[in-house]
Design brief:
3-stranded antiparallel beta sheet; mainly beta
Length: 118
Amino acid sequence: MQVEVAIAQPHLPRQRMTIEVNGVPLASFEAGNPEPSVRSCIVPSEVVTKDRELAIAFLTPDAARPADLGLPDNRKLSFAFHTLTLTPVGESCSLPGTDPGSNAVEEGALPAFAAADA
């Protein structure tokens, strides 16, 4: 997943995100650099329901309104991403700018990747 984080030094130096699929936390990370970064997670087969529907939640406990930090914006902001791509087992799991060696897929797992054009 490639994301861009909304931060405001010194008041909001970082943001955290937890990715849940079908109510199961699969990955957590923290970002404090405004440059886009790439993240990924694998969805184990036991998390996928029989009908193969996925409920994906991106939990962002540090989301903040810039207006609370003295800026003229009332939206609650955390991470920006534009595209979510799910890649089934057996297909190429690499994204531009990622390390192909880090995309090893376990037997019976569904890799899930989100990408953002920042």
